[in-house]
Amino acid sequence: MIITTSTAGRCPTCGAATVSVDDAEPWCAGCEWNLDAYDRQRRAPEFGWAWVDRWSHRLGYRLTRRQFTHLAGRPLGTGGRSAAAMVTAGVSVLLIGAVLALAVTGVWLIVAFPFPNVAVLLGVALLGLAVALRPRFGRLDPELEVLSADRAPELFALVDEVAAAIGTPRPQVIGVNGDLNAYATAVGLRRRRVLCLGLPWWGALSPPERVALLGHELGHFGNGDPRRMVLTQPAFTMLGSAADLVRPVDTVAGGGIIEMIGEALGKAFQWMLSRLLFGVHLVLVAVALRDSQRAEYLADEMSARVAGIDAATSLLDTALGHESVALAVRREMRAGHGPGRWRSAVAESRAAAGGRLSLLRQLSVREESSLFSSHPPSGLRRRMLAERPRHDPLVVLTEERAARIDAELAKEYEQIRRAVAWSG
Ligand SMILES: [Zn+2]
Ligand SMILES: [Zn+2]
Asked: What is the Cα–Cα distance from 420 to 200, expressed in whole angstroms?
């Protein structure tokens, strides 16, 4: 990536020279003129029609900035309930009610009439529909390598310490996988709390960043995050499954012209119904994700509270350089090295980024703003923390203790290292 500070371009608002990273549309680093530009070359299409994509980007950008301003002005630790949260919960209740009504009507049609009767068929169909549309609450990822407290006592103790420090419940399942990522989620109707640490990511972070990561992820168990709450699941999933259900599928043709016309009409109707349901699904997801972005800011706050602002912002910067982290870790894995070397490689690539970093943060506000993103742009998340009052970290992870945790996970690290070294 190359910084081009183009002298040809001048900001029409403040007169400063515009900046650009790589081949991005130039913007003004001072007043952020043109930061909201829709950069078609660098953006994956969301809908596939240029004008709709441009419109959805503008709307996503505007809503994201507005939410930032709103949350940045509030006192620390208060997230409030947003209108988006209320809509999401309300729609979920309606959807659950509709599925229940389908099921009840189905059962009634089956039992209400003497047996050989068309009503029975309709009843079975409705019941089947209710089952297909039932709310889904997720389950444990089968790829997750679940750890036990005797296998990794030091890691479990650290997780407990962080949970106690920020006052959130501890996870009931802790596991690892081979992703360059980490997540906290809740599965099943009883919402079992799961913490997953992707080992390439965990291994690449410095000890303070690891505490920040735990603070962020565990923070999700305590901040009313809609993506993890049982009441809001239907809003995220049900209409999507309904759209899938009515999407026309190709059947084997083998009839006369009348049948073909009938089939074509049926398909057209199904297609329209499917698009309509999917459209409503998208609107609902976009609304629900507003509240999910709010939850991310709150989780960042937990992260800063337990690990300190420097560690929390450093974690966000590392995440911003996700691609170069991936390259560095993979290179070291292939060379047969463990997490110690991944970390120094990541630190080196971070140092090499130098002054580019602040431009990348700013650019992320353009490139990561979306109606369909569960996370706010890294640049705004970082800005939100940087404006908060500073304080000492509540939990400090020493190099020695971090090394002991890595030693506990040596077997899992090695498995993942081999899997990556052998792939492609
Ligand atoms: Zn300017
Ligand atoms: Zn998060």
From this structure: 10
Tell the residue number behind the tokens 């706010």, with chain if given: 376
Q: What is the Å distance from ligand 2's center to 51 Cα?
A: 31
**Distance from the alpha carbon of residue 120 to the mean position of ligand 2, in angstroms:** 48
Cα(6) to centroid of ligand 1, in Å?
Answer: 14
Does residue 78 belong to any structural domain of this protein? yes
Q: Using CB atoms within 10 A of its CB, is residue 352 exposed (0-12), middle (13-18) or buried (19+)? A: exposed
**Among 335, 315, 318, 285, which Cα is nearest to 385's?**
315
Q: What is the pLDDT of residues 39-61, one digit of tens each?
A: 888 888 888 888 888 998 999 99
Share of the chain above pLDDT 90, in %: 46
Q: Look up the domain containing 235 and give its range.
A: 74-353+394-424
Q: d(Cα 94, Cα 230) in Å, to the nearest integer?
A: 14
Quote the ligand 2 centre to 331 CA distance (angstroms). 27
The number of distinct structural domains making up the chain is: 1
Split at pLDDT 50, 70, 90, the class of 245 is confident
Tokens of 250: 């190709």
Nearest ligand, measured from the Cα of 184: 2
